[in-house]
Write a structure and sequence with these properties.
Largest sheet: 4 strands, mixed
Distance between the termini: 35 Å
Oligomer: single chain
Strand content: 15-25%
Number of strands: 4
Shape: globular
Strand order of the largest sheet: 1-2-3-4
Order of helices and strands: HEEEHE
Helix content: 25-40%
Length: 111
């Protein structure tokens, strides 16, 4: 098998993503909010929750040294896509949809 990039980073991705997504879910619950997962017919997002009259839709990304910039760009694009395509009227009591990009650690500073 020929690897493009670091195979350890590739293996890290899905497992770390799910572990971090579970941690975000637990954080939402620990703050007294009810997490929402997408139904099969919904746009696929990682987790959302209702906070007052706002609906934050969260995209979760794990980061490694090898994938940090790509993951940040992908997550930002996915978050903007969720905001562009989501309709407030689908959610009872929600006046505003906001985007959240959750990453497992502080991104490296850029030069």
């Amino acid at each position: 098998m020929i690897f493009q990039g670091n195979p350890t980073a590739i293996d890290h991705g899905p497992a770390a993503q799910m572990e971090f997504q579970d941690a975000v879910h637990a954080h939402v619950v620990s703050n007294g909010l009810r997490p929402i997962s997408p139904a099969p017919q919904d746009r696929q997002f990682d987790v959302a929750w209702v906070a007052g009259r706002r609906l934050p839709i969260c995209e979760v990304k794990s980061l490694t040294d090898d994938n940090e910039e790509t993951q940040l760009r992908l997550g930002l694009g996915q978050s903007l896509n969720h905001l562009h395509r989501s309709k407030v009227e689908y959610f009872a009591g929600v006046d505003e949809i906001t985007g959240v990009l959750a990453v497992e650690h502080q991104p490296s500073p850029t030069d």
